[in-house]
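Hey everyone, long-time lurker, first post.

I ran two proteins through the pipeline my lab uses and got sequence/structure pairs for each. Pasting them in order. The first:
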Amino acid sequence: MDVFSCSTRVETSDTSNLEELMPSDYYVTFFMQGQEKPTFFYRNDAVDGMRQSVSCQSKKRKRFDNRVILLKDTQNAVVFYEQNYRKRGCTIEGWQKRGGQWELSREIQEHV
């Protein structure tokens, strides 16, 4: 599993492979309409939220559209995509290569 294939794993409702790529210092920041400041979640809370999100999917699937992967250098990448599920949103993921393995180090989401 790597930065190029990871986003599609959530579509199957199996988050275990993605969770393995989230180091202990992972965090996600949510910018939501109507909130003055962003909300931060660290790894454990983010994983719980991700599991709940995919378990709530019944017949409706999350879509990851317009994905763009930008390599900053050989050790860092940024992935952008639109999520379309209950609400439309944009996600920016920060990936780092540590010990030869790509890890999802941070994530920013904003609902539109």
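...and the second, right after it:
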Amino acid sequence: MQWKTTAGITALFLALSGCATSMEGPGAYPAETPPKLIEKGEHPTWNDPGLFGPVPAELQAMGDEVCQSDNYRHAIGYHPEARDINGSPIPGGGFLCVDELAPDTT
């Protein structure tokens, strides 16, 4: 599974196929229904990225750090009640990450 826990925030690093514009992005605010991790291919993914709201300003740096630790550029969404693959709340919520970084070839 490709998710990490940093400072109490658990996040999934969404594996994108194609460009970020091919997926739905976060909404204007977190939906009442929280996003849930689901099995899809080799990696779990969020069932509906549109259920995320924007990343709160006070969590943006942490979200970006979490995303960058798994080769993604930044967090574009956050939901405080995101659910894991078993449907249990993820402590601290979950981030939606985009823009996979090119591998370091040095």
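Reply from user beta_strand_b:
Welcome! Quick read of the second one: Strands lie at 3-6, 9-12, 37-40, 43-46, 72-79, 94-100. Helices lie at 57-68.
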